[in-house]
Specification:
The protein is an alpha+beta fold. The protein contains 5 helices and 10 strands, in the order αββββαβββαββαβα. It has a 5-stranded mixed sheet with strand order 7-6-10-8-9, with helices on one face. The chain has a 3-stranded antiparallel sheet with strand order 2-1-5, covered by helices on one side.
Length: 240
């Protein structure tokens, strides 16, 4: 009986010691999950600036100053954060880039609160030419569409063919794709599905109407080549 009591006391003591040990044990640090990036539905104007190549980006940590840096987005679309490595930045918002940096930094640093700021950006331009008031470049900004760019360059003129506006977009491999837009439909109905948003180095060409083409044809092949006299209002001489 005494042995049973002694054994029971020993078991209770071991249980109490195990409970104290479990309460005093500090669990190993687990990196927090990176905050999810903002998701923007395809086809909608981007409400936030997207990082471009050549942009100057400032990365600042609240509690880890040794990781702070100011870097430039390279032609390959990446930036380097000393101590953490390279991050792909091209086309991301600053929130998305912050999330990527936070996720990697949290593996080796506790509470790596980080902020990313674009401190300098190269001017992005598109070209508008053809039958517009003032052919030339327009500075790109969020939400700039083909019709708005044409308006900035003086708008359509009498000889503009609004139904066959061409937008040329260049790819990274040097190829291009041309899209024909019916901007007359946009103006008459308000349906903006034909009004494409412009990107850096896009070209917009507004062709002349058929009447304008005919006038140009007469100018090139008749007026300039043949000795055709301009019509006169002078009447015949009487008495000759």
């Amino acid at each position: 009986m005494r042995e049973q009591i002694t054994l029971l006391c020993a078991v209770c003591a071991l249980a109490m010691l195990a409970g104290c040990a479990s309460r005093s044990t500090v669990p190993p640090y687990q990196p927090s999950a990176a905050p999810p990036p903002r998701v923007v539905s395809p086809g909608t104007p981007m409400p936030y600036y997207q990082v471009q190549d050549g942009d100057e980006v400032e990365v600042r940590f609240a509690f880890h100053e040794t990781l702070n840096t100011t870097t430039v987005v390279r032609p390959d679309g990446r930036v380097t954060v000393p101590g953490l490595g390279d991050f792909y930045a091209l086309g991301l918002t600053t929130d998305q880039l912050e999330a990527d940096i936070y996720g990697r930094a949290s593996i080796t640093h506790r509470d790596p609160t980080v902020s990313v700021t674009v401190t300098h950006s190269l001017e992005r331009r598109a070209y508008v030419g053809g039958e517009v008031g003032r052919p030339g470049y327009v500075a790109l900004r969020s939400g700039l569409t083909t019709l708005r760019a044409i308006t900035e360059r003086g708008g359509f003129i009498l000889s503009s063919e609004k139904r066959k506006v061409v937008v040329i977009k260049w790819a990274e491999d040097g190829t291009y794709a041309a899209t024909q837009l019916d901007l007359r439909e946009v103006l008459e109905t308000g349906d903006s599905t034909q009004d494409l948003a412009l990107e850096p180095n896009d070209m917009v060409y507004v062709p002349p109407t058929g009447i304008a083409n005919a006038t140009s044809w007469v100018q090139q092949y008749i007026t300039d080549l043949l000795p055709v006299r301009a019509p006169t209002l002078r009447g015949p001489d009487v008495g000759r």
